Amino acid sequence: MRHPITLSLCIAGAFILSACEKGIDKEAVDREFAGVNVVDETNLNEVMLTVGDPNEAVNYFQRATQEDPDRIDLMRGLSLSLVRAKRHDEAKRAWAKVVEHKDSGNEDRVQLADALIRSNDWEAAEKVLNAIPPTHETYKRYRLEAMIADGNKDWKKADAFYETAAGLTTQPASVLNNWGYSKLTRGDYAGAERMFHDAIRHDRNLFTAKNNLILARGAQGNYTMPVIPMSQIERAELLHSLGLAAIKRGDIEIGKGLLRDAIETHPQHFEAAARSLSALESTVTRTN
Length: 288
Known about the structure:
Helix content: over 70%
Strand content: under 5%
TPR repeats: 38-71
Radius of gyration: 27 Å
Organism: Thalassococcus lentus
Keywords: TPR repeat
Pfam families: TPR_19
Shape: elongated
Protein name: Tetratricopeptide repeat protein
Structural class: mainly alpha
Largest sheet: none
Number of helices: 15
């Protein structure tokens, strides 16, 4: 933030000298200062939305909106900060106020729908999205449309919306993972597996897609580890998930072997896998 402040001081000095030389009145100088302050404030607003504790950002924007309650940029900042802070009930109310503002647009309505979904108000979110003109085509809008279609078990619509959303972003890993999970819940395990592979191809660090891939393979009785990028800890965790998937299918001995592999692979003590194996072995012992 050093450069904007320095620039502000330089501009301020120039205007003061100009006022002395030309006799410009104080109000004119104040108006110029007001323009400089807006530039600095805009930079600060952007910083508050991207770094630090989101609750601190909430406090910042709450103070700012109290001082200037009709500024829609500050209202948006507060709403986005509430979402980041996972204060979803407050966020949906804040976005509703933004939508009521005379300068609000369709993207604000998309944000409201997102906040409604986060607070589990799916029916209201669907109504908000349905009121947005179809010409407003954005990644976020179609991702939300896909999630709602999923909830309604309208698989044809869901697939169409997921495909459109994936084509509207340069970082489709998250939406591909969601699409894969949708196919997983439908029982389309092979289709889900393809989606998770695609998601990992776009983001090799997306562990949820890796774990979901394991679940899709396990559901098909495929207990071999896929060839994907993974750390030693991730490999242990994925072996644990695969072991549980095998046990769920009734392949108890395979599941036990996978759990032992998970414990041996993990660089530290793997409590979750050890607990799962212990519980399984004690259950088998009691049955015998």
